[in-house]
Amino acid sequence: MRRNRVAMALAVAFPFSLSAYAQANDAPTKELGVVTITGGQPTSLPTQIPTTMEGVTGEQIEQGINATDSEDALKYFPSLLVRKRYIGDYNHAILSSRASGTGNSARSAVYADGILLSNYLGNGIGGLSFPPRWGLVTPEEIERVDVMYGPFSAAYPGNSVGAVVDYVTRMPTHFEAHAKMGYVSQPFELYGTNTTTRSWQASTSVGNKSGDWAWFLNFSHTDSEGQPLTFATRTLASGTPGTAGTPVTGAVPGLNSANAPWWILGSGTAYTTRQDHFKAKLAWDITPTLRAAYTLGVWQNQSQGRPVSYLRDAAGQPVTSGAINIGGRSYAPLTGSDFALTNESLLHTMHGLSVKSHTQGVFDWEVAASLYDYGKDQKRQNSAANALPGAASGGPGTLADGNGTGWNNLALKGIWRPGGMQGAHIVDFGFQQDSYQLDYLTSAIPGNWLQDGPGARVSEVGGKTRLQSLYAQDAWSFAPRWKTVLGLRGERWSAYDGSTAIPGAAPAIDTRWAERSETHFSPKAALSWQWLPDTVLKASAGRAVRFPTVSELYGATATANAQYINDPNLRPEKSWTTELSAEKDLGSSLLRLTFFTEDTHDALYTQTTLDTVANRNVSRVQNVGRIQTKGLELAWSGSDVLRRGLDLNASVTYADSVIKDNAGFVTVPGDTIGKRQPNVAKWRASALASYRWNERWSTSVGARYSGPQFRTLDNSDVNGFAYMGVSKFFTVDLRARYRIDKHMVASFGIDNANNYQFWNFHPYPQRSYVAELKIDL
């Protein structure tokens, strides 16, 4: 019975980790649905809060998941989805959760060893993109990934309203060295594209612990080819009957996301990406109960986006510019916006420093600071007037430069245990300051967009936000089978030094925005009751205030193929989230049923539409009056289920997320009322089964499903299986792992083995073959 209770203890907070931790000598122990991690690298999550937590170990990732990027570790978590489009996706891989879609990156919090990876300079994608900085963690260095669902800890800002993810990375206890090589091949066929993309990855790591010092170094390189992500189009209705324009063939007929007939003229944004990652970690045990740690992360990215025209003239030559004629109808001339070329060069650096006591006595404390710096962040692109084929060798364009952009975080934390570790109270409290700076200058390049320096200013946006917070929460065991956590977070938010300049706008924009400040308080509460020896009941409630980001306030931009419209007067979004859970130990497995609600006022939303006249995407940020979500989540996980060596976990989520109030509209007043929240499917499900055949062989089968959903606030995009649509999907993933000897392991896998073609504005990857070789010393 003791073994089952220990296993259940871990499963309550970390169901995916059941088998790995249950076999450890220092396995966690459970009390009233609360988990204490006592071995290995500690999580930064507040494990004393009786709310839904999930987790997966690095060993389980390697055994059961084709993980080419760190975000792949989240593939089979209940209710989570990362919008990863290709290996090394650095600008669109946004995390969604139960009641937050893939356009709302600022509604989740991602950390690595407590250092912020989420990019709160903006939200989602628009003029700029703001996914978490996944590239600062590689799959090989992950020891464990922990997830807390909902804004139920006072220790986190309102961005935690969806989920808090913490990557716990390796810190050696003795000398270790590792190397890994990977290869991925994806045959891709869509519209007029028929190609095979390939990706190569290599990484190595080494570390040691000697006396009071421990260190770890990790290097990785990715060379990735991605499938086309965008497409040049013309609606059938925009054509004019006649003979004007060059007669062309090769245009692919189809229906757009609104089910209107259109022509697909060619592909774009097929990235060739080269990335390098370096991580150095140093830890010093100053005393047996006091540790200092420093982390340095460096990530660089060189990428090119290249288009391909499907159109051919009478001589069979590609057509990339000028007016065109398809089937006796003349269409607007092709420009550099239709077939855009991009070159990007990025170099980002992360620093983290902490000093932490761990006496496990009456009082412990921590001081932690981190810095994320855009040392280099440049994007070059040909101008609308500079079309192919000439644009391939030069000509005018633009240069967008984000040098000077970044953020820094400071946290002072304390833990007070009036009665010691076995006392009735554990009180967490602290002060935090989070500062963000956005500085983007877009300049014209009159000569050669490939290499020349900046010319006249096209647009310049910048500004700063600062969030200062005080919090306290008390985990109180007030009765033998009861525990509650009560917390309060007070936040002072400021936005200042904001400016927006677009000289070419009509009329020209050159505005310095007034400083803004607001103060809000967010209460939190959680309660657990050990109803039966094998059943725990838990309830959680919390308020979250998600403040506008710098880009949402000031970041208006205009390029050849995209426009982003900001709003400096945006209101913060305010959410009340509740959760009721029942968790039952079934012996070798754990079953959890969770009812959740979220009621959000002034939801911050960026809506993207296509300007068919200018043929460019237009994104506008706005407040949506009220969005209400209610749902159920059923999760089951087990180790050695049915037979020894078989590990299973599965989940299904139902979410009814509806817009209840909105003064704004898309086409006519009231057209969003009663419509579903974008990018939140009613039904989602995932499952992963892993089987250890013997000491050498293991295999796994994973499956993921998401039901139909919409991308627009008025739900007018009724055809999800089209460019700019959001479709349902069902994919099956396979993986086999073979231990050659005690130092070498080979793996082979297939992602999307059933080759399901699905969309989230851009097309997702089709069937992909993955091969890996890993060496451990």
TrEMBL record:
Sorted alphabetically, the Gene Ontology BP terms of this entry are: siderophore transmembrane transport
Topological type in the membrane? Multi-pass membrane protein
Question: What are the GO cellular component annotations?
Answer: cell outer membrane
Sorted alphabetically, the keyword list is: Cell outer membrane, Ion transport, Membrane, Receptor, Signal, TonB box, Transmembrane, Transmembrane beta strand, Transport
Where in or outside the cell is it found? Answer: Cell outer membrane
- Where the record annotates domain TonB-dependent receptor plug, the positions are 48-164
Signal peptide location in the record?
A: 1-24
- Is Mitochondrion included in the keywords of this UniProt record? no
Question: What highest taxon heads this organism's lineage?
Answer: Bacteria
Q: Where is the TonB-dependent receptor-like beta-barrel domain?
A: 300-752
- Matches recorded under InterPro entries: Beta-barrel_TonB, Beta-barrel_TonB_sf, Plug_dom, Plug_dom_sf, TonB-dep_rcpt-like
Q: Which family does it belong to?
A: Belongs to the TonB-dependent receptor family.
This one is known as TonB-dependent receptor
Which species is this record about?
A: Simplicispira hankyongi
